Amino acid sequence: MSFDYQAMYEDAKAELARLQTFKANHETKLVEIDSQIEAATRIANAAAAVIGEQPVASIDSDWLANADAAALHAAGISVAAKAVIDSEPDADLTAPMVRDALQTRGWNWERYSNPLSTLHTVLKRLAESGVINRGGDGKYFSTKRRRPEGRLPKPSESVRAR
Known about the structure:
The protein is mostly helical. The chain is about 65% helix and about 5% strand. It contains seven helices and two strands. The chain has helices at about 5-50, 60-65, 70-75, 75-85, 95-105, 115-130, 155-160, and strands spanning about 130-135, 140. A hairpin with a 5-residue loop joins β1 (about 130-135) and β2 (about 140). α2 (about 60-65) crosses α4. The chain is elongated and about 75 Å long. The protein starts with a helix and ends with a helix. Mean pLDDT is about 80; it is low at about 150-160.
């Protein structure tokens, strides 16, 4: 009995490509859903302030602080990376900084052959979709940034702006 290893190899490659595409499409959809959740949270919290109700928790403010490694992995790399960036809205973060923050929270990088390459790709896609912002220096920052560059204007800047 002979086994066709070439056919098995080709089938496995095709299945791998199909699964990677499926995963990429779903990660993009998850990012879109996160944006919708974020928008609904902002609307609910704005209304809560007017009617005297408690604000609802957002995935960024509460989820990341309480998420364990299993929750991070279940959410996926895109959601986890966005949560790290949104957890520090006025900080400029590089891919290595996001990697280290995820690792501190228990993210397991063993299954990634090149974690930084993966993160650079994820961050680039998040920035292209408008979920996070990218500076010209390769640093990323939250769409929730309170001030450009995360700082208060100098008196001379506020005068020029008028």
